[in-house]
Amino acid sequence: MKMTPGVLIIGALLVFWASAFIIAGLPAATMKEKPSDIWRPLTAEEEAGHRLYVANGCSYCHSLFIRINDWDIGAERIAQAGDYVGQEPIILGSERTGPDLSQEGGEHPDDWHLAHFTNPRYTSPISLMPSWEFLGRQEVRQLTAYVQALGLKAADYRTARQKYWKQQASAAYAAGPDANVEWIHSQVPEVWRRMPNPYPADAAALARGKRMYQDFCVNCHGPIGDGQGPAAAYLYPPPLNFTTLRRHLVENRYIGGIFYYQIMNGITGTAMPYFKKHLESEKIWDLANYLGVYFVGYTDANIEPRGIDAAYEGPWQNPYQPPAKGAK
Ligand code: HEC
Ligand code: HEC
């Protein structure tokens, strides 16, 4: 065959179409991803939130794809291709200035998100996420609906649990401060209620407690622990006022285990988040000592049964002794 310009052009076009078919056409025709076990379509409001997520560049700081090597919120379920069927556009993001959000739905109740989108520092005092208050209440509601849907059916399961416990917690709060505290404490397992703080509340521990309180708690529970931080205006039930706890706790004497359990797990249904992924064990005990000493007026640190002191602990006598039973 003679290499005329016509043959050359037809040959080049054939090569082009063949490679286009192999690279793009074949995969598009055969690689239809099937919906995963947790998949469901987004509602209109969630879809509107998804568009806001894309338009406002949330993916510059957040990913929507949690991998087997991650140890983050949502790592209970590794992301799968089938989770994203029907999303347009699919923007998974590769930056993690903020946490991965692929299983964000149901991590917090809606009121937490309202406070957080209004000003992230209300709920997370050292956050560098920008405020989205300028979007207005309706768009913040749509964004909230979208982040509550992240995780799809797995998220629905968690949001249903948040809603169930929100009802219980709101009813307890409406019954008055004493009934509320009694209800919250009755949800803490007996073994934790009867556990004293095993760590001394020495100067270094209290300084660590204070630092963490400023970094994680202060804008909800307030600088003096009265529950009047700036987030309170957005939350129902509002953050607990620690200064009302004393009369409940003196009957019990022990206080450290109750605090530890609640700080570790959060209180589902309320804005109180869990901290077991942010803070390791000793830091949670330090916080419990800090709340006890500064906001309640005593700590059960190192009282009987105290166990064996850890090797690194110095000699320490508890100067913040729990009051005797029946004391005010
Ligand atoms: C400049 C980076 C940045 C941008 C942009 C950003 N975030 Fe964040 N985001 C963060 C950081 C950091 C955190 C962790 C601290 C906190 O809770 O605020 C966070 C936390 C969150 C959380 C809470 C996660 C949890 O359960 O603790 C949600 C939900 C969230 N962002 C949603 C969004 C949405 C929706 C957008 C876009 C409208 C957005 N973020 C834009 C940095 C960012
Ligand atoms: C986003 C707001 C928010 C943040 C941040 C927050 N809390 Fe809470 N906290 C709450 C709410 C809301 C409650 C429950 C109020 C209710 O149900 O009456 C609560 C309850 C508690 C309780 C239960 C007290 C009791 O005796 O029953 C403890 C302890 C507590 N918080 C400690 C902390 C600590 C420590 C931090 C920081 C590491 C923290 N909280 C951060 C909102 C918050």
TrEMBL record:
<dbReference type="Pfam" id="PF02433">
    <property type="entry name" value="FixO"/>
</dbReference>
<dbReference type="GO" id="GO:0046872">
    <property type="term" value="F:metal ion binding"/>
</dbReference>
<protein>
    <submittedName>
        <fullName>Cbb3-type cytochrome c oxidase subunit II</fullName>
    </submittedName>
</protein>
<dbReference type="InterPro" id="IPR009056">
    <property type="entry name" value="Cyt_c-like_dom"/>
</dbReference>
<dbReference type="InterPro" id="IPR051459">
    <property type="entry name" value="Cytochrome_c-type_DH"/>
</dbReference>
<dbReference type="InterPro" id="IPR003468">
    <property type="entry name" value="Cyt_c_oxidase_monohaem-su/FixO"/>
</dbReference>
<keyword id="KW-0479">Metal-binding</keyword>
<dbReference type="GO" id="GO:0009055">
    <property type="term" value="F:electron transfer activity"/>
</dbReference>
<feature type="domain" description="Cytochrome c">
    <location>
        <begin position="44"/>
        <end position="151"/>
    </location>
</feature>
<keyword id="KW-0408">Iron</keyword>
<dbReference type="InterPro" id="IPR036909">
    <property type="entry name" value="Cyt_c-like_dom_sf"/>
</dbReference>
<dbReference type="GO" id="GO:0020037">
    <property type="term" value="F:heme binding"/>
</dbReference>
<feature type="domain" description="Cytochrome c">
    <location>
        <begin position="204"/>
        <end position="295"/>
    </location>
</feature>
<dbReference type="Pfam" id="PF13442">
    <property type="entry name" value="Cytochrome_CBB3"/>
</dbReference>
<keyword id="KW-0349">Heme</keyword>
